[in-house]
Specification:
Number of helices: 34
Radius of gyration: 62 Å
Helix content: 40-55%
Distance between the termini: 151 Å
Oligomer: single chain
Strand order of the largest sheet: 3-6-7-8
Largest sheet: 4 strands, antiparallel
Shape: elongated
Amino acid sequence: SNMNNRGGWDKMPGDCRVCPNWAFRDLPSDKLANRTLVAEHNAQRMESIYEWSSFCPEAPTMADILACSWCDERADFWITPACEDELAKMREQLAGSMCIGMARRDDDAKIERWATYLAGLSAEDLVAAGAPKDFFDIFSLGHPFFDKTKVTMADRWVGPWRRLLQQKAPLLDALLLSLVAFNRWVKAAGESSPALSATVLRSGWRTTHNTAILNWLDTVKGSTFEGLTGSVRFNAESERQVDYTIYSAGGASLSYTAVATFFVAGGLSFFDEPVFNDGTSTPPPDREPSCPAGRQYVEAARGCESCPAGSYCPGDPSPVLRVPAIPCAVGSVSPTAGAFECEPCPVGTAPSAERTSCLTCPEGEHAVEPGTPGCSPCGSGKFWALELVPNESLHLMDEANISASSCGDCPKGWYQDQQGQTDCKRCDLGQQTFADGAQSKQDCLCPPDFFLPDDASAGCVPCLGGMECLVGSDTANFATGVGEFPRLLPRFWSSRDEPLSVFQCLDANVCPGGAPGTCGLNATGIVCASCPPGAFRAGDRCVECNGLEMSKFLFPALPVLMACPVVVLIYLASRAPAERWNLPQAGIVTCASALLMHFQIQGMLWKLNLYFPPSLAATWGSFSELVSGTSVLRPTCAGVTGFTQQYYLDVAVPAVVAFVFLLTLSLSRLLNLLTASWEEAPQGTQGDEGGVLPDPSTLLQWIVQHRMDADCLFSGFGAVMETFFVAVAMLALSLFHCYRHPNGKSSLYVAPDVLCDSAERNDLIAVGVLAIIGYCVAGLAIVAWVLVKAPTRFNELSFRKRWRFLLAKYRPDVHWWSAVMLIRGLALALSAILLAEGAHQLIYVGALMGAYGFCTNFLKPWRHTVTNTFDAVMSFALVASASAMMRFAANPAEESSQTAVSDLVVVFTHVLSFLPQVVAVVVGSRLLWVYFRPEAQLAELKRLSNDLDAVGKSLEGAAGPEDIVECIAVLPEIDRKILAGSLHILLSESQLRIMNLRKSVSRSISRNTQTMAASEGEEKEEPEFEVAC
């Protein structure tokens, strides 16, 4: 059946479709009988593809059919020209035919018998067969529809139902096919099969997977019978095999004659060659030639004419298919006649109403692309202007105006928040846009490294030191946190209340930067310098106090318990007599003291105004504990809060140490009184200063009964103060070590949360001054007095014991070196006070340590060679460290600081490169002075000769080698080595002189003998002897 479009014609490709008869229900019935129409797909109708109306023209009339250039009202099938691919072979074989007709072979007599049979069925018969009863109620008396129309079923069968049966004969054949196949299948399956139940069949229709349904469909394919529309049968491809007769219009009256037959899945067979009206088989030219591009067919003129301006003519595809002039599409024009295409108007123009020219867009409007249908206002962010039309588009323009509009983007620094404007608005002072085409005032932003303050009328101002200002930074965004605002760089801090008052931190981990008020590692307070209660500062982080630290055992219990025992140990180490000052044990203690001084200097470097990376905190930062007072004992965990309490505690440490020494002496005297009746402990061999340790087995008894020597105890106290003099000086001067913040304020380096102009710091100034006078000035004055008196009072036992700490470590001829050590310590502590810039501080420290190291290497002041070497190496290592630390002297947040440090390094490098030349000039000048002053050299030789003579005479008076050994033993190790080197030189020179003397005597004797043999009687010559030393 072709009613459901499942016949062979649905295989046509593209838009060729089969239309059912009822689509042309408005045509006369005699024109519809036994016909099926083929038409083009109507693209204007967007209904579902299964709606027949989406395939067919809408309700054509008889006039439409008769006016069709390719249709024939008598044709059984109407084929559209769109079905070229499918019908290419037919057109070749039937060239020249206007239409092709196909007749379906319906059995009219059989259709009439069916109509008579169905008309004989009553409503009761149909309802009994399963038809819905309510449908037939409309033909019953009393039903409103019947009462109005008086139409009976018999009336329907006489009229429309009988015609409908003729039109739907294929549908009836489909129903019969289904019944025949069902009957065959039932007989084959057996009437008792469970698959035949109504329930199973109904379920099967829904799923299409029921075995019964599948078997039924297979039976359909093999069924055959003679139906209303001819023989119903199928080929192997399940296609119905229907025979069609092909007709062709011919003759003067274009009458149809059968010319061929067509079989589904078969072929096309012609009876005779088709003959056209002219009696030949050649199709006549029934149309004028096709019009070329640029011209159109005019029916009145029976020919082609030029395409009018404002339109274009693509040309006719064929004489049958004419294409009239097509108006130019919106946005295009054709200025002259005969155009085969329209050209788009250039940018900035729009076509005229006639599509014959392009017109300049009016002021404020623009056409953004070629071929734009019309002009529209310039958008925001743009301004309107005129420019010349390109030469290639001039022919499209109106002669009166050859300009085109343009909508240019507002340049950077300008914006436009309205449409259709001819200019842009300038951003406020200092602001700018960062892309062309800014559309609002909000696009005007401060550039990088600038920000907009609260007083926006001032415009953008430079970013503050320690801050990073990205594009669009605005202080108004501080409150919301939305948008850009000046952000702190790492190592800088500001409060939320005053976000623009920037402080500099001493560590980047504590102050990570970002939003104001941000602290890292649990830190709090100004510049994140404080720790919350129950925590202490350990390097760059706040660490929670543990149980031991909060138990007050670590502080103050442990120092109190260990103070006196430690003083006793120091006292025992301070009793060595002068003859033991040169022993290796004393050298070890001296090296340990020098090492502690070196570590304190390293800690002092950490407290310079430098920008150390956090990676150095574990090494150099650890040394700073030696110059940080009592912080290593965690006093904050024991209840010491605030900087004032911590400062009083630190600055009192030297006084407390002195008190502990006095307390130890007092306790010793008390124990002497309590043990006066005890048996005296055994004593070891002692020198004149009692410096030998007691027998270890009775050490405790000896300590209890021993009467402490106040002079030796004082020497121990002095040794402690001398060793830690750098730390003491730094603590005394810490109130004066300030560093500046970007906001102009200054903080104490030891307590960044204490401002240098604060009342808290000012209240402590008097204490700091007293500490400087008492610890530094008075200490240096006492040391200077002692060293001046030392040459004349060294033989006094009490003097020697009391000031042992100043005299025991150094050679006698440089006994004043302890003053140099203390002055060096004070000068180093003053580096951060006298100089504010870290680079200058490093140069100062490097120069100071370099000079000290040079003097150490030249004078060799220490008694032991190892200590001299060690001290010189440490000095030059500190010089190298100070030089390497120059890379940390520049403020990473300030480019000017980096430039200044870089320039300073260049100058410093030049100075160092010329330093050897300066030394060479100085040394060379002395040599020249000696060269031109021979009398001075002679005087020096005489003085040396007298000294050697005096030494020789003193050695002649010695009782034996033992006396000489005793004398040499008191010499420092370094002096003994110098003496040994000098004696080696003297002995070597003496041996050389004696050897030369012997050779001279031998040569003289030989010459005299030869002379006497050669010439007798001549006067004898005295032999010449070289003067021996």
